[in-house]
Amino acid sequence: MKTTKDTTAPGDSGDVRLTGIGKTYGAFTAVHPLDLTVPEGSFFALLGASGCGKTTTLRMIAGLEEPTSGTVHLGDQDVTALPPYKRPVNTVFQSYALFPHLDIFENVAFGLRRRGIRSVKKQVEEMLELVQLGEQARKKPHQLSGGQQQRVAVARALINHPKVLLLDEPLGALDLKLRRQMQLELKRIQTEVGITFVHVTHDQEEAMTMADTVAVMNAGRVEQLGAPADLYENPRTTFVANFLGTSNFIEAEVDSASGGELVLRAGGGKLILPEARNSAPTTTGGKVLVGVRPEKISLTHADDAGGIPAGRNRITGRIAGAGFIGVSTQFVVDSPVCADFEVYVQNIDRDPRLVPGAEVVLHWNPAHTFGLDAAQDIDAGVETVEEEVA
């Protein structure tokens, strides 16, 4: 089944617009006033650790929390004062809350029957086909796997034709393998129905796999907003750089600038940083945090350093530890410019000399370097992320 985007009168659909939206609980600010636009028909993720304000933001869109300030618009309609049942949105929670005494068909049909619609067979069958559960229609929820139950919950929400589907940690109860399968399933469903999905998650991989746009939240604010690849490749803060994967940071000083490149001094050597990938002040002598992702780096034994191509950034070090994880080996290198420098090397042609204690040269394409303001906390965002409770 291919479901096309609903084309209704102007004002009945459109972007989700949050304007100055904020939420406080007494002296505690859960969400600082923020402006955020979720484009119509997009898959949008609110990503962050526990307590960052992402679920509170979602609940304000749903009408389950009253904003302390600001407005919520769905298209041209101001829904800030509307109760949840009058908003053209539906929410899928981590606990699917299926009716155990009803079969799957009747669980999906529930919303239609509640609205007094008698002829539900065609709509329910189409929705079950969309979530690939047509053959399970007469089973009870307890007879389905967690992933199948999750799809029933999505079908039950979508059959009401909401303008926006809100998903609050919907995959949190699934094991890792099933969660990854469901990430692809949810993206497929969103693409087919063409409506706006707003998804809250603490899982970086989940957000980056499914979403067109990700808003990384931290302490009640949007830290950075963008496409997943852009956030990963061009983080603007240490929090984003550390929260989305792993980053190595080198404290450096601006030496000179020319031809769109900055020349930086670090530990007696020099590094090249494209100006377009720098968000730190660029005055001569100014401090910069030079960042590079572990998988962007090549590791060469010191005896072979002469074969490294010219023009690459390079630092020297000694392997402090190595861990084999199948697809790659993760090395920790002790370097004069960065302790515990992490390098991920694919296990294609393994050099048997790359063992703890070996002297090595780390080198990478300067285009993979990014620069951040050195005034930031270098360890922001590296805390262990736990599932959000509040």
Written overview of the protein:
The chain has helices at residues 54-62, 104-114, 121-130, 146-158, 176-193, 204-210, 228-233, 238-243, and strands spanning 16-25, 28-38, 43-47, 69-74, 77-78, 89-93, 164-168, 196-201, 213-218, 221-226, 248-258, 261-266, 269-274, 287-292, 298-301, 313-324, 328-335, 338-346, 359-364, 370-373. With 390 residues, the chain is α+β, with helices and mostly antiparallel strands. The strands form 4 sheets. The chain has a 6-stranded mixed sheet with strand order 6-7-8-3-9-10, sandwiched between helices. The chain has a 5-stranded antiparallel sheet with strand order 13-12-11-14-20, with no helix packed on it. Helix 3 (121-130) packs across helix 4. The model is unreliable at 1-12 and 384-390 (pLDDT under 50).
Structural class given helices, strands, pairing? alpha+beta
- Biggest sheet statistics: 6 strands, mixed
Please identify the top-level CATH class of the largest domain: Alpha Beta
The CATH topology label of the largest domain is: Rossmann fold
- Radius of gyration, whole Å: 25 Å
Total domain count: 2
Mean pLDDT: 90
* CATH superfamily caption of the largest domain: P-loop containing nucleotide triphosphate hydrolases
* Ends apart, CA distance between termini: 37 Å
CATH architecture of the largest domain: 3-Layer(aba) Sandwich
- Form type: elongated
Strand content: 25-35%
Share of helix among residues?
Answer: 10-25%
List unreliable stretches of 5+ residues.
1-12, 384-390
State the total count of DSSP E strands. Answer: 20
Order of helices and strands: EEEHEEEHHHEHEHEEHHEEEEEEEEEE
Tally of contiguous helical segments: 8
Q: For the largest beta sheet, what order do the strands appear in spatially?
A: 6-7-8-3-9-10
